[in-house]
Amino acid sequence: TLQGKTAIVTGSNSGIGLGVARELARAGADVVLNSFTDRPEDHALAAALAAEFGVQVRYIRADMSNGADCRALIETAGGCDILVNNAGIQHVAPVDQFPVEKWDAVIAINLSSAFHTTAAALPAMRARGWGRVVNIASAHGLTASPFKSAYVAAKHGIVGLTKTVALETAEEPITCNAICPGYVLTPLVEAQIPDQMKTHGMSREDVIRKVMLERQPSRQFATVEQLGGTVVFLCSPAAEQITGTTISVDGGWTAL
Ligand code: NAD
């Protein structure tokens, strides 16, 4: 059980981040939810999680494209035992036409934010004598696809950051690992299915199997619950000697 631990999950008002936050709350951790918005529904999400699992849940607005905001998130939380760097965006374009501002935003949100939050969180972890850093990378942290230069560069970068932080904390009760999901069924992905069905004139099942999961040998999406479960595992005593590595949750994608 993670009772008494405080977990901060960046980019957690939807998708994988919210799924990870749920599983951490289910395991007994107090949770800090985050995104760049500050809407009533963001805070309502925190209240609902708290009520469901009987833990403390707060929503703290911070824009992960801004280094000072990243550090302020950790300071405002007032403690951090588990840091999950999950916030991420995608942009798809050929490298010679890739908009510079999109490149900068992808690198800032998907890579630099983890540098800032980790730098701010390590002193707190050291002070309390325990810590877990889990970076949500991607199959694209280990392999590439065309037209995703910024995303692939950022995800390879976060795998490198993961290894370096692991070495710097190797003799301490702190670990740092990356999870590399393949295609995960999030609301964002679900919303693309009807369009793809129209475009390809295919059934839902065929769009999923033949278009979306073409590179995922299991032909099944990973789920946000499975990713949350992997984070909880990395926080468990069984994972104490797992550090500086990647865990793929990709149905065999990177085995191809
Ligand atoms: P999503 O769009 O549902 O969630 C992204 C989260 O990041 C949201 O909560 C969003 O509000 C937040 N966010 C975006 N910009 C932000 C900013 N500037 N500051 C703070 N928060 C911000 O997407 P998702 O699929 O849940 O992706 C989560 C992570 O998982 C990303 O790092 C993504 O690269 C990675 N990932 C997703 C998949 C997949 O198939 N869905 C696969 C591999 C890796």
From TrEMBL:
UniProt-listed SUPFAM superfamilies: NAD(P)-binding Rossmann-fold domains (SSF51735)
GO molecular function, one term: 3-hydroxybutyrate dehydrogenase activity
Family to which this protein belongs: Belongs to the short-chain dehydrogenases/reductases (SDR) family.
InterPro entries the UniProt entry points to: 3-OHbutyrate_DH (IPR011294), NAD(P)-bd_dom_sf (IPR036291), Sc_DH/Rdtase_CS (IPR020904), SDR (IPR050259), SDR_fam (IPR002347)
Gene Ontology biological process: monocarboxylic acid metabolic process
Protein name in the entry: 3-hydroxybutyrate dehydrogenase
Species name: Phaeovulum veldkampii DSM 11550
Domain of life assignment: Bacteria
